[in-house]
Amino acid sequence: MQAEQPLNVELAQWLATAPGQYVQAWEQKQIDGMVTNVFGYHAIQIGLPHWDLLQANRIPFKGRSCSPFENALGQSAVVINDPEYLPFDTQSIDLLVLPHVLECSNAPHQILREVERVLMPEGRVVISGFNPWSLWGGRERIPGLDPLMPVPAHMQVSLARLKDWFKLLSLELDRGRFGCYAPPCLNKVWLDRWSFMEAAGDRWWPVCGAVYVVSAVKHVTALRLVGPAWKTASKRVRSQAVVTGRHSGLKT
Q: Where do the H-state alpha helices sit in the chain?
């Protein structure tokens, strides 16, 4: 019996299909706009290393990491690691990009904790994912139809859940967008014919896009040093002395 492929490997293969190319083109444009003005010294893309999502950024050092399964496919990366345990020092990365990483893991919240740990204060993370409440996600719930997305609906992380996780950490949602409003089609010709849906969907039903891209910033509350309460020395009040003459009280 053939072993089941990890989701991140299936996702990498799916991106070469017509709907995968459609999603990839939209996400590339959104992520380019979110990372172009992020500054610092270190930027890391986690997962899908064959897809360069840091090309629009000008940070001097850019690296890409991938899981051992992705590396076995020949998708070369600087670092080979599991995203649940990032091999970076605490507060050492200025920018992280995670394309569909959370939904390919059984421990997405652990990945976010690692993201928070390695990000510098005011560092930024950009995350993309499939929207389980889109037309594409609804296709999986129709009996007899093959799913269009490589990630099962129960594994997908909705934007509402992602926001809740951000609140538990020191990550604040900065911006985000839904996209890919074309109906679930396997053929590029039909996807192109439905391209007019992008503008209409963005205006009339924005939360129904097949995918989303969000950006969050790590905010660290400044520490306030509390020292001992210094007592102000009380001023001595000099009592007025009554000076009398040598012969005061003597009768003359």
A: 7-14, 18-35, 68-72, 108-118, 135-139, 159-168, 188-193, 197-204
Q: Which residues of 34-45 are buried (b: 16+ CB within 10 A; e: fewer)?
A: bbeebebebbbb
How much is the pLDDT for 248? 44
* pLDDT, tens digit, 9 for 90 and up, residues 35-50: 999 999 999 999 998 8
Q: What is the pLDDT of residues 27-37, one digit of tens each?
A: 999 999 999 99
Residue with tokens 């990945």: 111
> Would you say residue 115 has pLDDT above 90?
yes
- For residue 185, the SS3 value is coil
**In terms of residues, how long is the chain?**
252
Structure-token match 């926001």, residue found: 163
Superfamily per CATH, domain 7-218: Vaccinia Virus protein VP39 (3.40.50.150)
pLDDT for the residue 247: 47
Domain ranges of the chain: 7-218
45 vs 55: CA distance, rounded Å: 11
